[in-house]
Amino acid sequence: MATNENAWDKLLHIKTTGRDDSGADQYRYPYEPTPYSVLERLANSGLIGKNDVVLDYGCGKGRVDFYLAYQTKAKTIGVEYDERIYQGAAANQKTAVSRTKTEFVPVRAEEYQVPAGVNRCYFFNPFSVELLHKVMARITESYYENPREVMLFFYYPSEEYISYLMTVDELEFYDEIDCSDLFEGNSARERIMIFKFPYEISGE
Which distant-in-sequence residues (6+ apart) come within 8 Å of 136 by Cβ? Predict the structure, then answer.
């Protein structure tokens, strides 16, 4: 697994390996990059393409953004509140092969106004369910201002996350991508759960 992680970093001309919990607290969780094997499965799902804009919450050093921009040709936006970790993403952007399709914003997720073009959002347990409520309010606001189909991808979701998401009226559960075979232990959390805001024309 480590070989795969280093190989992709080298191919993409970035440095994203390792965990960092120096800025973590009860609301914002440690930086830990999504395994490339999981991102490969997401990219191969066909749910993200060159016409999509992916918003990566808690982007860390930008692995998800650089990888998806490279593999799917989508435009990606990463938001990161930890200034020091954000600098890692900024440094990677200077060298990454897919840097022209990536953008990074140093901001708290719950304060970030979701651009009208965003139609895909990615989460790898970046923060507590309390903050997820606030972030979902921002996404919902953007959805109503500019109606469009928006897909949300939750990797390794907690029971708290799932329970909350099932209560959001605007959301529909769409599908899940099983990743349990990629790691030892066959954890039920090793999956990407997909929810969506359906695009419906008002008046129909």
Answer: 168
Neighbour count for residue 172 (Cβ, 10 Å)? 10
Could you say which architecture CATH assigns to the domain 2-197? 3-Layer(aba) Sandwich (3.40)
β 120-123/102-105 pair status: unpaired
Global pTM value: 0.93
Q: Check whether 50 has a pLDDT greater than 80.
A: yes
> Which residues, 6 or more positions from 172, have their beta carbon under 8 angstroms from its beta carbon?
195, 196, 197, 198
Comparing C-alpha atoms, which of 91, 117, 102, 32 is closest to residue 67?
Answer: 102
Looking at residue 18, what is its pLDDT?
A: 77
Question: What is the helix, strand, coil percentage profile of the chain, to 5?
Answer: 35, 20, 45
The one-letter amino acid code at 129 reads: V
User: What single letter denotes the amino acid at residue 59?
Assistant: C
